[in-house]
Design goal:
The chain has 147 residues and is α+β, with helices and mostly antiparallel strands. The chain has a single domain, classed as Aminopeptidase (3-Layer(aba) Sandwich), CATH 3.40.630. Strand 3 and strand 4 form a beta hairpin. Helix 1 packs across helix 2. The two termini are 26 Å apart. The structure holds coenzyme A. Coenzyme A binds next to strand 4, helix 3 and helix 4.
Length: 147
Amino acid sequence: MITIRNFTDSDYAVLCELDAPMFSGMGGPILFRHIQELFGELFFVAEYDGKIIGYILGGVHLEDAALGKLVRIGVCKGFQRKECGTKLTDALFSRMKERGIKRVHLTVAETNAPAISFYKKIGFVQKDYRENYFYPDIPRLVLEKEL
Ligand SMILES: CC(C)(COP(=O)(O)OP(=O)(O)OC[C@H]1O[C@@H](n2cnc3c(N)ncnc32)[C@H](O)[C@@H]1OP(=O)(O)O)[C@@H](O)C(=O)NCCC(=O)NCCS
């Protein structure tokens, strides 16, 4: 059974290894430390049989405490399409709701068809398209969902 719990410091090295093939060159080890320090309550891991198989990172806007962000989600290849992503988002969104967050946004590459299908399935709609979102010229779709 897949279970979800908050990230702890002892997960750090394992999570960095798990992240590398999923988000090559996208700074997982640095991102995890920042999210742990700033938004630890919104940092969850998924486990199967005592082994970490996925994670989700959330955040909150300082200037709008009702607006949350899904910063990153990743599920190991062998465990995709088994509702792990859905369980991770459920955990994040219920914690966000407890904190008074009313809506959540994220960005995704327009070429990442599996992730876009996933986000649409769980209720996100496209709100914007941002050119040059990441340096130097990487565009992103902006998706949003009411909680
Ligand atoms: C996107 C991701 C997190 C989804 O996680 P998951 O555990 O596989 O998702 P779930 O099993 O909860 O899927 C729920 C629904 O989303 C949709 N979905 C998920 N993956 C999909 C895919 N590859 N293709 C089409 N639809 C998909 C389906 O409707 C699915 O329901 P179904 O399996 O009953 O058809 C996972 O594919 C992943 O980690 N991808 C690599 C990292 C990544 O791209 N992250 C997002 C970066 S912005």
